[in-house]
């Protein structure tokens, strides 16, 4: 299993975001599991889980890690293809479903900032800057191209964002007012 995988294919992103498949990916964070185990935990039919696993496997999100003999049959165990999946920001502009998901996420960000006492003066400008900041950090991580644990990845992403804003977008902070 890789530490990090970048998902750029909009279809693969949609596959991973479907509720049952997303639940499977969440469960596989902890350990590899068989279809029987997933079926029991998710309270869904084995054939249903099998279809979801095959779709996730097709898009490279899960992989069979071993087979164990169970009586006369073998049971396959699946694991995530990576500990961390990063969704390419460019994918959000290539697909209408992902674009609407991005807009919902941004709306939630605005709501949280408002609850924290911040007001954003120009929402469109904020969205443009936010995209540029994320794109810069994402591209730098791609250039680095080495495995990072989740905490290091999160911290370096934040630092790259700060560095970019300081050097390229010092006006970004003028968008915010404290209520």
Short description:
The chain is of the alpha+beta class and 179 residues long. The protein contains 8 helices and 7 strands, in the order βααβααβββααβααβ. A 3-stranded antiparallel sheet has the order 2-4-3. Strands 1-5 form a two-stranded parallel ribbon. A two-stranded antiparallel ribbon has the order 6-7.
Describe the structure.
The protein is α+β, with helices and mostly antiparallel strands and 179 residues long. The chain has 2 domains: 2-84, Orthogonal Bundle (Arc Repressor Mutant, subunit A), CATH 1.10.10.10; 91-174, no CATH class. It is 58% helix and 21% strand. It contains 8 helices and 7 strands. The chain has helices at residues 10-17, 19-27, 35-42, 46-58, 91-94, 96-115, 123-144, 150-168, and strands at residues 2-7, 33-34, 62-70, 73-80, 82-87, 118-120, 176-178. The chain has a 3-stranded antiparallel β-sheet. A hairpin with a 2-residue loop joins strand 3 (62-70) and strand 4 (73-80). The longest helix is centred in the last third of the chain and has 22 residues, at 123-144. The protein is elongated and about 70 Å long. 14% of the residues are buried.
């Amino acid at each position: 299993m890789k530490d990090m995988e970048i998902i750029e294919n909009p279809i693969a992103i949609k596959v991973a975001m479907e509720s049952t498949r997303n639940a499977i990916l969440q469960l596989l964070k902890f350990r590899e599991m068989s279809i029987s185990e997933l079926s029991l935990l998710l309270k869904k039919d084995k054939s249903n889980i099998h279809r979801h696993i095959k779709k996730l496997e097709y898009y490279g999100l899960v992989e069979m890690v071993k087979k164990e003999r169970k009586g006369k049959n073998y049971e396959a165990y699946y694991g995530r293809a990576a500990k961390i999946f990063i969704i390419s920001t460019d994918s959000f502009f290539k697909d209408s479903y992902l674009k609407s998901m991005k807009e919902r996420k941004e709306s939630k960000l605005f709501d949280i900032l408002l609850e924290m006492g911040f007001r954003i003066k120009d929402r469109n400008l904020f969205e443009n800057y936010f995209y540029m900041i994320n794109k810069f950090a994402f591209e730098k991580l791609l250039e680095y191209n080495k495995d990072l644990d989740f905490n290091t990845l999160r911290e370096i992403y934040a630092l790259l964002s700060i560095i970019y804003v300081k050097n390229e977008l010092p006006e970004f902070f003028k968008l915010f007012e404290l209520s």
